[in-house]
Amino acid sequence: MKQTLFNLLPPATLAVIWTVFGLAPREITEAGWLFPLMALGTLVFVQLMEFIHERHADWRMNRQEWLTDIFYLVFGVLVIETMTDLLVDSQLTRVKEALGIATPWLADLPFLLQVLLIMLLFEFGQYWMHRWMHNNAFLWSTHAPHHHLTQLNAMKGLIGNPIELFLISLSVIALFDFDENALFAAFVSLGAIAFYAHANIRSDPPAWFGFFFTTIRQHSLHHTALSFEDTRCNYSNSIILFDRIFGTFKDGESEVVGQDDRKRLTIKEQFLFPILPWLRKREDRAAN
């Protein structure tokens, strides 16, 4: 019974998110507190589930993991989201207004259809950006720190080089006129799926869920320590359906994760990773 309940946690979480935002009055949404409350509440819930029914003892959190994960959570909210809004979303909004682009009919679509459309649109961009990162030397240098993770936990999807975190956050959603509640529901849902896909929880959702949405089994295989080539599958952060459509889906699971020598990087090393080879060459020249 316990395992069955944990297997149903991911779809049940989505159902709760969709219900809350689907029924929330406009004045509550516009007050500005419901979205961060639901996003943070979902993360805290998923993280707590790791302590109740963990998947692998080797992935158990310690003080260093906690501090790093919390740092990236704060960094993502205060820096990455601010930069994305300032440099991309606000600029797209200005372009949209200047060109007279308007899609008010989208807000009249059924709520759940809007949520799914937003999720698909955002994740489509994430899928191709992520796949490109595994097929381009410079982009891989920004993404590699995320693959140096030696364990998976709910907040691990937030960890990486700042360049990668910024690039993977980009989308064209600002060009469309979706209902605000649907937007919030979609982004909290994408976050919830990603939390579960990185979480150390013994939860294997029903087959129908894993056909459309990314699970820890599929994403742990993407993080496998076998080789770099073995990570070139299951690129979808939240909607594994894209991997099935574009031929990059691979079934399986990996308990041992991490790249190269599986060296755990410090925050400084994660930030400097793309230029570490240059820094080492400079140090060698100075030493000689």
From TrEMBL:
Keywords: Membrane, Transmembrane, Transmembrane helix. Pfam families: FA_hydroxylase (PF04116). Its main location: membrane. Residues 115-248 form the Fatty acid hydroxylase domain. The keyword Transmembrane helix applies. The chain crosses the membrane at residues 5-25, 31-49, 70-88, 100-122, 158-176, 182-199. InterPro entries: Fatty_acid_hydroxylase, Sterol_Desaturase_Related. It is found in: Membrane. PANTHER family: STEROL DESATURASE. This is Sterol desaturase family protein. The keyword Transmembrane applies.
